[in-house]
């Protein structure tokens, strides 16, 4: 969308830039009685509305932002007006996120003058448009695809409605089904699984709509049963214990995986919420600046940190340092670097060195970070102004658990990932009842679990409250899924 439907219609100056999030730059909603970053306000686009198709999705605010808005003297309409005014200012400077890209793509395709200059090159260049992971398309995405289809571009959609887990972003399986039916009355159904064992295919089928038979395992014949681990989940924190042994649940899972010749680096632990996961392996969304820095410092000191995590950690440190060194300059770090002729390698080396110099996060970590920032040798052109740029907030990141060698992440971050062994943590009471009676067509949580299960190649394990273990074992046995309670 950005390269072919948006960017060609943008002016060359300022250079248009697509951001992953408004958090990438210092975009703060100003002129109100609270300073809140623009990225904390999720926006929705309704393509069926010609007038005022955009709105702030107030019920999707994180807890801290909701508290700030509720304590504000300004109404939500007043905030929304300022939010969109702030966004307009940044767009005029050439900055856009995926949401704005969709807004502009829709406008360009619906405007005859704009679309004429876009569609003719597309039709001549592309024989068809293939949309992978189509179940994640929002209403705006489908509206854009419909316009491309109407303009004569053949579409091929590839998707699994059972993996539709982004309703909060406007993706709905029913909308995709209706759209696909308009394209072809006889879709081609794929029933071969090139990742998982037959046992895992049977387990996954219990979480699908329509009581369809399990997929056929194409490349594996492992018969490892589904492992159910009775667990005492911590009321707070993530120190969950394997009930029969008293060991940490991740250690218990690793021991069982080793019995099937699955090494720790080939294992994955996942859950619906960050708060359930053991240790700290991912940046939590919508956290304050000092907590983000604490996460970045942890990543910088983690020997087996992923490249993606290291990249995000570096970006966090750069934003923090630039916010202090160049407090009066607008735009993202890339434009500030260009203005002062700073190379990317120079900036990144400085950011990583700063992260490595910081002590481990602790209760009074914020003041220590601030002292370190003031003492750190600045880059050329730096002009600090007193306390401007001091990372705000109180550190809420707990100390990481001892390294286990096993990757952990929330399910929503695992699309496209896989591992020989996967442990799904289900701490909430009533999960078995939900598994037995809810309909995946309308219950997104079941589809989230389905995504987790289908990440596994050889071994699927489920940790759940010890008083519900027998009930799940009985339920799965009724579906002829081999189960072993350990």
Automatic annotation (TrEMBL):
SUPFAM superfamilies: P-loop containing nucleoside triphosphate hydrolases
GO MF entries: 3'-5' DNA helicase activity; ATP binding; DNA binding; hydrolase activity
Domain annotation UvrD-like helicase ATP-binding: ranges: 1-197
Chain spans, region Disordered: 380-402
Single GO biological process annotation from the record: recombinational repair
Hydrolase keyword on record: yes
Keywords: ATP-binding, Helicase, Hydrolase, Nucleotide-binding, Plasmid
One Pfam family of this chain: UvrD-helicase
PANTHER family named in the record: ATP-DEPENDENT DNA HELICASE SRS2 (PTHR11070:SF2), UVRD / RECB / PCRA DNA HELICASE FAMILY MEMBER (PTHR11070)
Protein name: UvrD-helicase domain-containing protein
Species name: Streptomyces rimosus
